[in-house]
Amino acid sequence: MIMIDVSNLKDALETLGFVAHGDIHEKVFPEIGCSLKVDFQAKRLIYPNEIKGRERNNGFDKKENFVVFECVCRLLLKEYRPEHIELEKEWHLGHDPKGGRADICVTDTSGNMLFIIECIPAIGEALGMTGFILLDFALTFLCAFFALDKLVGGVRSLVVKKPDGNAFIPAMFLISFVTTLSALFAGDDTVLRFYNFTFAFCVLFSAIASYIGIRKEIYTFNIISSKKRKLVLARAAREDSVEERAGFARHIEDDAEIYKTREAKFIDDFFARKKEYPKEKKIIGILLAASAAVSLIVFVLSLTVGKASFFESMTNMYFTMLMCAPASVLVSYTYAAYLASIRAYSYGAAIVGDTTPEEYEKAGVISFGDNVAFPADKLRIRSVKIFENNSIEDVIYLASSVYSKLGGPLATVFRKAALDGITADNVEILSLAENGAEATVDGHSVVIGQPAYMDNQCYSTTYEAGDELYEGDTNKRILYLAKDNSVIAKFYLQYNASSDFIYIVRHLSEQGICTAVTTADPGLDSALLNKNKLSPDAYPIKIIKPMMPQEEMERVSAHDAGIVSNHDAKGLIKTLIACEKTRNIGKTNLAIKFISMLVATALTVLLTVTGNYDKMLPFYPALYQLFWMIPMYLVSKIYI
Questions:
Q1: DSSP label at 64?
Q2: Strands 96-107 and 24-29, sheet pairing
Q3: Alpha helices in 39-104 (DSSP H)
Q4: Where are the alpha helices (DSSP H) in 50-147?
Q5: Rounded CA separation 3/10 (Å)
Q6: 3-state secondary structure of 24
Q7: What span, in angstroms and rounded, lies between the C-alpha atoms of 363 and 236?
Q8: Which of 393, 506, 562, 627 could potentially form a cystine with 356 if both were Cys, beta carbons 3.0 to 4.6 Å apart?
Q9: CA-to-CA distance for 572 and 579, rounded, in angstroms?
């Protein structure tokens, strides 16, 4: 709202419905039989004679008189009678002669007071130019006090050349302070503005970003501090991923990363990862520098080409900086990470560290244990044939003992089937092949393998009707068990992939990531995948063997395992996909930031050329920045 003064009084009267008759403007109120007049030659505000105290407010000498005049006009419009209105009525405080005056008092027909209207002057008029600017300074420093940690952190990030969202806080503080300072020494007394509005806006959103950042860390900490076993997606060293690199050489680049699912009891270095600096934030420095450069150009053009005063040029630079600098960086990165953490938490998983999404960007192969692909509850022992005079207890004991070292789903099945779950303590694996294994159990030689392996080892196998159903591209296999050079048992097995693993393979394939299944189980081979809807011709998947199972890790560093689950492998992969979506959000939001800067630059050029910068109010840049946060918010919600 603009304060009424002599310069705009005629416009205000026209808005109120006054009619000009030369130097006198009049508005008639026929319903109550009176009128209001303004005499510009005599510089008088003319009230109806029935209004008491009118002589105290009838001059052009105070702006407040114009406000009182407008209020009286609006009262008469609502048909309050002039004899019930009194201006500048005196009030006394008890028996004390001291008191005050009320601007407008309105009574009823009996003279009882209905209400009082007090016309308070605008803050700029009340304080004066210097007082107004000092108030601006005070509010600016108050905002800076509440955001002192962000202010210091932003300066530090600029000094170490790792600018983050907080870098905008000192930048906005500086431009607000300098502009207010120029207003103090070179400002126009008729232009009163608060130059701290956008700075306060940035402080507010910085506080919001801190809050959602803390919420994000709480979700993550709840997962990694859980007493449940942890399943992590750990980066494998080059020497520990030779088989995976060889198996998928034609699918992946040489610099692709190999990740393996590992079990761990404790996650180290959680707090150390809070100090990381994502590569995507490096653009913040460029955005700030570009905004400052555009602002400086506008300042020079205003001063030289536009012939504006120093203060006007500073004001133009101020608005340009606030418009061009994308303040959305205060929350855009944190909000996307926060949404990803919420989604990961719903999967029973967590994303540890801000750089985790970009670390998994080069994932080429993810390796799973055979228990994940073919869980024990999906495995079926269709039949067991015992040869000679061997007992089923002895057969299960030997098989369970060997598989206690080989691992895999059969280890669980045989352990449950063994008498009291007992297995031998003295077990040693002597050799491993793709479809067979040799071992010693309590000093006895034990061999287990598919028919082809047993034939190569010169064991006598029997081919029976129906055995052909357990060969080739099926999910069924035959395993023979031999003890001390004699075949003692024949197992008919059916391996079924879990629906979760099928989901994992298909979604990893969509992300361009290969899937490896490591196993030492002689019964598992790649041909099994066809019957389990996981044809290697359709998906980049391989069974890599023979590989002994990896033991559970006591501790794993969060630097090597940025995705952690206390639930299952599916939760890990869903979280990995959420990381990919977070990267896509960052790319989309970056494009939006550049568009907002281009639009802001165009607007500032237009305002500079047309000379309309003086019509800009301090909250306009804040509204502009808020507008561009809307598409970034929607992008984040849509992607995740």
A1: H
A2: unpaired
A3: 63-77
A4: 63-77, 123-146
A5: 13
A6: strand
A7: 11
A8: 562
A9: 11
Helices (H), 347-438: 356-359, 370-373, 392-406, 409-417
Q: Which helix (H) or strand (E) holds 593?
A: helix 569-610
- Give the helix ranges, DSSP H, for 325-388: 332-346, 356-359, 370-373
Peptide bond into 546 cis (omega under 30): yes
Closest CA to 151 of 141, 160, 161: 141
pTM of the entire structure? 0.76
25 DSSP β-pair partners:
20, 38
Rg (alpha carbons) of the chain, rounded to whole number: 40
Q: What angle do CA 538, 639, 325 make, to 5 degrees?
A: 135
Separation of alpha carbons 256 and 246, rounded Å: 12
Distance, CA of 607 to chain centre: 34
Residue pair 272/558 in contact by the 8 Å Cβ criterion? yes
**How many helices and strands, by DSSP H and E, does the chain display?**
19, 21
Spatial distance between the Cα atoms of 265 and 267, rounded to a whole number of angstroms:
7
pLDDT reading at 640 higher than 90: no
Contact of 224 with 270, CB cutoff 8 Å = yes
Residue range 149-204, pLDDT digits in tens: 999 999 999 999 888 888 989 988 998 888 888 877 766 544 556 677 778 888 88
pLDDT digit string (tens) for 399-415? Answer: 999 999 999 999 999 99
Token pair in block for residue 608: 């500079």
Give the span between the Cα atoms of 521 and 434, in whole angstroms: 8
Q: What are phi and psi of 623, to 5 degrees?
A: -65, -40
Sequence-ordered list of residues with C-beta below 8 angstroms from that of 433, at least 6 positions apart, any chain: 449, 453, 522, 546
Bridge partner residues of 477 (DSSP): 493
Question: At residue 265, does pLDDT exceed 90?
Answer: no
